[in-house]
Amino acid sequence: MPPKNNQDDKDKAKNQKEPPNVVFSGNPNESAPDETNPAGVGASRIPQDSGAGPFAEQMQKLLAEKQELMDTLVRRQADFENYRKRVEKERHHEHRRGVEILIERLLPVLDAFEQALAGAEAAAVPDYRRGFELIHRQLSDVLSKQGLTRIESLGKEFNPHFHHAIDRVETKEHADGVVIAELQPGYMFHDRVLRPAMVRVASAPESKSVHVSKHTN
User: Which of 5, 145, 149, 176 could form a disulfide with 204 if both were Cys (CB 3.0 to 4.6 A apart)?
Assistant: First the structure.
């Protein structure tokens, strides 16, 4: 077998090391391409996006419209919440007013029960009295659960907001301005005076002085 030609091997190795000649067309002043970034050839010649300005303005306009819509939504939600609270408050007020009217109409019935219990016939018949007491208690409990309370008057100082004075009695047994008798009970409905109590109020007796005049002739 004939030995290999060393000269042929050297020529082959030389051809593998030397890169082929590259011919660039165009402007000779342009820089050669970067070997580390072949894709960057001609990158400096790419024109800037002429639509960047209008796109940014459109984006700012859309963001402003979005913020305006969010502000409008917040205001509408606040208005609706205020409307809901106002309707709920008015509904509660109307309900309380209806209960108040009903209780006001039932007060004469309550007065009639108390007058019947205070009568001599009720005291003479124990069963009759107990029946009235039971009905009176039931009616009072129903009304008190709705917010009705009785005004305490006896022994209290006269208050024009809660009492209506029918008579004033001169007496030394009670201090001046103290309620000594209750002719008709008064009632409160929650924090409002539904009916003032008709009372008799004590009055301090006036001091009487006798003036003696001497006449000279």
Answer: 176
List the pLDDT tens digit at each of the 217 positions of the chain: 445 455 555 555 555 555 555 444 444 444 444 555 544 444 444 445 555 578 888 888 888 888 889 989 998 888 888 888 888 888 888 888 888 888 888 888 888 888 777 765 655 677 777 877 888 888 888 888 888 999 999 999 999 999 999 999 988 888 899 999 999 999 999 889 999 999 999 998 876 544 444 444 4
Alpha helices per DSSP H over 146-184 = none
Cβ atoms within 10 Å, residue 151:
20
The torsion region of residue 45 among left (phi > 0), alpha (psi -120 to 50) and beta comes to alpha
Q: Which CATH superfamily is 149-205 part of? A: Head domain of nucleotide exchange factor GrpE (2.30.22.10)
